[in-house]
Structure formats: structure tokens, C-alpha cells
UniProtKB/TrEMBL annotation:
Keyword Cell membrane carried by entry: yes
Keyword terms: Cell membrane, Decarboxylase, Lipid biosynthesis, Lipid metabolism, Lyase, Membrane, Phospholipid biosynthesis, Phospholipid metabolism, Pyruvate, Transmembrane, Transmembrane helix, Zymogen
Protein's name in the database: Phosphatidylserine decarboxylase
NCBIfam families reported in the protein's UniProt record: PRK05305.2-5 (NF003685)
Keyword Translocase: no
Protein's organism: Acidaminococcus intestini (strain RyC-MR95)
Transmembrane segments: 12-45
Domain of life: Bacteria
InterPro entries xrefs: PS_Dcarbxylase (IPR003817), PSD-A (IPR033175)
Length: 213
């Protein structure tokens, strides 16, 4: 059975919900206390972090997020890879785990936050106009870019890493609060193993296979 912990970023939401539940229960009709209680339970559910074993396979790239694959496409990445690349876009609903995990072991060589809007994550323009955080990972074999993108409900991107830090494959490094999307951008020669509509889990689902010398 999977074990879960609560991310500390969720504590203010949970404690506020509990306080509201108690106040409404004592100062108003106890029946109305069910509303903040339900919100409190949801906050605890949303900020859950599953205890998942860290993989260690240099031949594959794991999903950086839980969710549903929205698109798999080819394009030229001029932000970090600076070459022809493949991009897998993952949509995270409000019911998915919202932490992000490193798809491979590597050092953080690129870190860029871009302020923006909050269009729905499923809209094609969201990656361009919305708030985003791009993290480039590099090791001896490859380079990948992971982009956290805010959505209409996601109003804050959280990153717990920094330039030069080494991340293990499958290690949690950040999260996006309340609905969002995540992009995994890889070199063109990586074989993508997922397709549109597939359900994926961060650090568990293998997204692609790469050639390692």
C-alpha cells in the first residue's frame, strides 16, 4: 500500500480550513461546518505526496508529473536544448498529485521563472502566455527541459531546487498549486513511449527511451 505525507505548503490551507470549521460550528449552525470541513479534507488530499521509490535507469526518462498526456509533438527548442526536440504535455487535474519529479538524474543547469497569465491549462496558448517555471537538467548522456505551467486555478508555482543542484531520477523538486500542466522536452532522438490520452504518474511511468553510450 502506498504511503502518503502532507507537503508543508499545504499546512496553511489545512489549518485555516480547520479553524473555519470550528468557528462555524460554534458560532453558527453546526450543519454549515460541513462546508469548510469538506474543503479541509480536500486540501489534505491535494497536498498529498506519495512515497515512491526512486528509479535509477539512465536509459529511460520518467514522467515529471501525474496526469493525462495532452499532446506529443516535435518542434525546435530554442530555450535550453537549442536543437530539434520532442515535447510531451501533461495535464494535471485538481485531483492529481501536483508535485513534480526529475525525469532523469542530473544537475540543474537552467532555471527560469516567467511571470504571466492564468489561462486554462488545456488551452493551446497556455504554455505561451501563462506563468511558468523552466528547469533544465543535464548529465553526461543527455539534457532535458521540464516546464511547470500555471492554469486558471493554479496561481503559484513552487520550486525547491536551485542552479547547480543535483537531482536524482524521480526526486521531487517542486509543485504547482490547483490545476496545471507540465511539459517534458527531450532531444529528437529520444523514443517517446506514451501517446495522447495516456494516464501517467510521476517517477513511475516511463515516458521515453534514450540512447546511452
Amino acid at each position: 500500500m502506498t504511503r502518503y505525507t502532507i507537503i508543508k505548503d499545504g499546512y496553511p490551507f489545512i489549518f485555516t480550513g480547520l479553524a473555519a470549521t470550528i468557528l462555524v460550528g460554534f458560532l453558527a449552525d453546526p450543519a454549515f461546518a460541513g462546508i469548510p470541513l469538506i474543503l479541509t479534507i480536500y486540501f489534505a488530499y491535494f497536498f498529498r505526496e506519495p512515497d515512491r521509490p526512486l528509479p535509477d535507469d539512465p536509459h529511460v526518462l520518467y514522467s515529471p508529473a501525474d496526469g493525462t498526456v495532452m499532446a506529443v509533438e516535435e518542434f525546435f527548442d530554442d530555450e535550453f536544448l537549442h536543437e530539434e526536440a520532442k515535447k510531451v504535455t501533461i495535464f494535471l487535474s485538481v485531483f492529481n498529485v501536483h508535485t513534480n519529479r526529475a525525469p532523469m538524474k542530473g544537475y540543474v543547469k537552467y532555471l527560469r521563472y516567467t511571470c504571466g497569465g492564468f489561462e486554462p491549462a488545456f488551452k493551446g496558448s497556455a504554455p505561451i502566455v501563462n506563468e511558468r517555471m523552466a528547469i533544465g537538467l543535464e548529465n553526461e548522456q543527455s539534457r532535458v527541459l521540464v516546464v511547470q505551467i500555471a492554469g486558471i486555478l493554479a496561481r503559484r508555482i513552487v520550486s525547491w531546487t536551485s542552479l547547480g543542484k543535483q537531482l536524482l531520477q524521480g526526486e521531487t523538486y517542486g509543485m504547482i498549486k490547483f490545476g496545471s500542466s507540465t511539459e517534458l522536452i527531450v532531444p529528437r532522438d529520444v523514443e517517446i513511449l506514451v501517446k495522447k490520452g495516456d494516464k501517467v504518474k510521476g517517477g513511475i511511468t516511463i515516458m521515453g527511451r534514450q540512447q546511452v553510450q
